Amino acid sequence: HSGRLVETILGPLNEQAQLEGRSFIDADTSMSAGSAEAALRAAGAAVLAVDEVASGNISNAFCAVRPPGHHAERDRAMGFCLFNNVAIGACRARELGFDRVAVVDFDVHHGNGTQDIFWEDPGALYISTHQMPLYPGTGGRNERGASGNIVNIPLPPGAGGLELRAAFQALVIPSLEQFRADFLFISAGFDAHLRDPLANLAFTEDDFAWATRALCEYAARACDGRVVSTLEGGYDLAALARSASAHVRVLMEF
Asked: Is the backbone of residue 241 left (phi > 0), alpha (psi -120 to 50) or beta?
């Protein structure tokens, strides 16, 4: 992120939240008195996860964090997101010598922030499956990045597990295989669940488990199993709990 964004969130916006109990970034995105610390800890969780996986202490990690991150652009916080946790984790991996990082995002919303941050970075691959049309209005197939390093796979309302599997088999896994990542990241949003109130995809816990297994199998072939997953959206609490549990259970198999 730019220094300006970090300074604004940790400075004036945080100070207003401390004094008044709330500060607003936009109509959807606000800060409470604890938001700045929570955002720093969420980003720190991604960094620590990368350090632990890179050192070989653990094979993969899931960061159960709030606030989420994938809408936060280089210079702009938005969409409930203050800092882009998965992008920060990916940048940490680059610092540790992993030159080629890939982020796969199966949140129901397009991760415009991650796309923005990596748009001109040929060493970073960003792949997103998401509902379209839907907030934030980005994520068309024609959005390819400066080096063809962005792969957007918009899905129509009502799409479910069959469409997710087809997208993975036709585009997600082949794109990863061609890129040959050194480190794999997952933006694990579970608001594509059929019970979620904010959108209209129809995934189930089994679909998230299937997608997680496909990604872990790729990582086992390509990058010694190095995977860090960060929590993104999910607004039906029961569906979120079951989906995150299914995701973590698969991670634990690898």
From this structure: alpha
Measuring CA to CA, how many Å separate 45 from each of 41, 65, 224?
A: 6, 8, 21
Query: Which residue has 């992993």 as its token pair?
Result: 98
Q: Which residue has the tokens 């082949």?
A: 174
Nearest to 68 by CA among 240, 216, 197: 240
**pTM beyond 0.90, yes or no:** yes
How many angstroms separate the Cα of 236 from the Cα of each of 67, 93, 192, 212? Answer: 16, 32, 10, 20
Is-contact 132 154, C-beta < 8 A? yes
- Between CA 93 and CA 182 the distance in angstroms is 9
Q: Provide the annotated active-site residues.
A: 71
pLDDT tens readout for residues 99-109: 999 999 999 99
Backbone angles phi, psi at 246, to 5 degrees: -65, -40
Distance of CA 24 to the CA centre of its chain: 23
Residue type, 178: Q
C-alpha span between 57 and 209 (Å, rounded): 24
CA atoms within 13 A on the CB side of 243: 29
